[in-house]
Specification:
The complex is a heterodimer of chains A (329) and B (228). With 329 residues, chain A is α+β, with helices and mostly antiparallel strands. Helix content of chain A is 14%, strand content 33%. In chain A, helix 1 (34-43) runs parallel beside helix 4. The two termini of chain A are 35 Å apart. The model of chain A has no long low-confidence stretch (mean pLDDT 96). Helices cover 23% and strands 29% of the residues of chain B. Chain B is elongated, with a radius of gyration of 20 Å. The chains are: A alpha+beta (329), B alpha+beta (228). At the A-B interface, strand 15, strand 19 and helix 4 of A face strand 3 and strand 4 of B. Chain A: GO terms for molecular function: ATP binding; hydrolase activity; lyase activity.
């Protein structure tokens, strides 16, 4: 068990999301950055969907009441009993130890995973917290979290090789699939969207990121559509012409025209961009986007096997570029 | 009918471009047919007014294959069985519906007229969305249409029945809101511990039934397990 001592606001328990209930108006929720969350779970020997702590900009402080292995995702100063430790590595914690996670130096969302995952009461099949409907609640000081059972031996001391650590740039190119309501925009409007930088505004949260930038022109059909569904990463453009990227806690349906949907592999990049950071959009075909996703999945599977000691990774240089090659042990 | 990708993990099947009962019935018939077949690549289905969103796992199937895979389901016909009608006991006016007098005045009617006109029709549930358990209803009499509040309320109690423009609806959760509130139901529209978690289902019909304050608190106690 662990007890939370200091808890910044919006610290929650999340997993990969609550699926199957969107037709009843219940949002998917789940982690904002599934790449980081899955990797940090692998570092402690967990599967992809193990419940973990998600924090925003500043991490919590906690005390361990029993031994466990944990890891932190996110670039922050981290202290175990006052001694500095590294992110993206798994450590042993014993009864009485105190873990402090300071402010993130880059990115927005950080994660703390524990071997065996956090035990939580699943609501509609998931531990994902959705604050607006009180599905789970924000964590607060004094909360005690139970951990799931896991064999702890040989789980500590695992480190994620640098080349797999996500970057949190303040300017990113975000690949998108145009549509599904492209006819609600003029040619110029689409051109503006694809050629201008858009800045993430402070008015952004787990529901969506509001962007500021050149106004996107609607066609004579206007900004409103007959309300339909909102997939993860959908980019809505209301009448003011300023795009909103819909993220984990998005409402399931909405009435603004969607100019594009972010490629799933680039959703973590969006989520980790701070207010003031800039995004540029690049259109790709749906098949390309699915190919990128398959590649990322293969990479994640390989990293998991690498951390489990089932694969080795080698860096090779070819044509001036560095590649990582995985081989069996 | 049209097929479009909505990103790399969703296919939209578009059946029309107007809010129409016939189109919406087709939407629900096709959504149900795909869901019932539950192909292994399916993540979930969201039927809307005029479209079906098919959320799929792109690691298991590609976009053009999904389009082919859903085609056999497109001839699914709406079932002929009698529609389910859910009665919504509602107290109109007073503290439960603080805007009912404004709605009456705005439309040149009496408060009793509003209650009668609002509680008369069978409202079809075209879709659920927005927040857990919120139903998009069709069929409100335009004689009681009223614009939204200029400044939304910060707290609208769960169960509040409101009017916004030409539509009417019920707030499932306590939330901010800009609808003109004309009444409130003691029923719980969303309960995560219930299966299904929402009282209303797309394709059902609802009927508002005027009740007294005493009846409201009696039902409220049963539904919410608290006095008020």
């Amino acid at each position: 068990m662990i007890e939370l001592l200091k808890v910044p606001s919006l610290t929650t328990i999340q997993d990969l999301g609550r699926f199957g209930y969107q037709k009843l108006g219940i949002p998917v929720s789940g982690v904002m950055d599934d790449y980081s969350a899955r990797l940090v779970n692998y570092l402690v020997g967990n599967d992809d969907n193990a419940p973990l702590i998600e924090f925003v900009l500043q991490g919590p402080t906690m005390k361990f009441y029993s031994s466990t292995v944990f890891a932190v995702a996110g670039e922050a100063d981290i202290y175990l009993n006052g001694v500095k430790i590294e992110p993206w590595q798994s450590y042993w914690a014993k009864r009485g130890d105190v873990l402090e996670v300071d402010v993130l130096k880059r990115g927005v969302y950080g994660y703390i995973a524990f071997a065996g995952g956090i035990k939580c009461e699943k609501i509609l099949g998931s531990c994902a917290t959705y604050l607006r409907a009180k599905l789970g609640g924000a964590l607060k000081a004094g909360d005690k979290l139970k951990l799931g059972y896991a064999i702890l031996t040989k789980k500590e001391g695992k480190a994620l090789p640098d080349e797999f650590k996500p970057e949190y740039p303040n300017e990113s190119e975000i690949r998108v699939i145009l549509g599904p309501q492209l006819e609600h925009f003029t040619k110029e409007g689409i051109e503006t969207f694809l050629s201008s930088p858009y800045e993430v505004t402070p008015n952004s949260d787990r529901m969506g990121y509001r962007l500021e930038g050149p106004k996107i022109e609607h066609s004579e059909k206007g900004a409103d559509i007959i309300t339909d569904a909102i997939p993860l990463g959908a980019i809505q453009v209301p009448a003011n012409g300023k795009p909103i990227i819909m993220l984990a806690d998005r409402q399931t349906t909405g009435g603004y025209a969607k100019i594009a949907v972010v490629a799933k592999v680039d959703v973590p990049k969006v989520a980790q961009t701070r207010a003031g950071g800039k995004l540029r959009f690049k259109a790709i075909r749906v098949e390309e986007s699915q190919e990128l996703l398959r590649k990322r999945e293969t990479l994640l599977r390989n990293i998991k096997a690498l951390l489990e000691g089932k694969l080795r990774a080698y860096k090779i240089k070819a044509l001036g570029e560095e590649f990582v090659v995985f081989t069996e042990v | 009918m049209q097929f479009k990708p909505a990103g790399d993990s969703a296919l939209v099947i578009i059946f029309g471009n107007e809010i129409d009962e016939r189109i919406n019935k087709k939407v629900h018939a096709v959504a149900e047919a795909i869901e019932k077949a539950s192909p292994e690549w399916l993540i979930e289905i969201v039927p809307t007014y005029t479209s079906v969103y098919v959320y799929y796992d792109p690691l298991k199937i590609g976009y053009s294959e999904v389009v082919e895979a859903v085609k056999p389901f497109l001839n699914a016909e709406p079932k002929k069985e009698k529609a389910r009608i859910i009665e919504i006991p509602t107290v109109y006016g007073g503290e439960f519906g603080p805007d009912i007098e404004f709605v009456a005045e705005y439309n040149g009617l009496s408060v009793d007229d509003i209650i009668e006109i609002h509680s008369k029709p069978l409202y079809r549930i075209y879709m659920l969305g927005f927040t857990p358990g919120f139903a998009y209803l069709g069929g409100m009499d335009e004689r009681i249409a009223t614009p939204r509040l200029e400044k939304p309320r910060l707290k609208v109690p769960a169960g509040s029945v409101g009017i916004a423009g030409k539509q009417t609806g019920i707030y499932p959760l306590k939330s901010p809101g800009g609808w003109r509130l004309i009444g409130r139901t003691p029923l719980k529209l969303f309960d995560a511990n219930r299966e299904p978690p929402t009282l209303l289902q797309p394709g059902n019909y609802i009927k508002f039934v005027p009740i007294s304050e005493e009846e409201f608190w009696e039902i409220y106690k049963k539904e919410w397990g608290e006095e008020r």
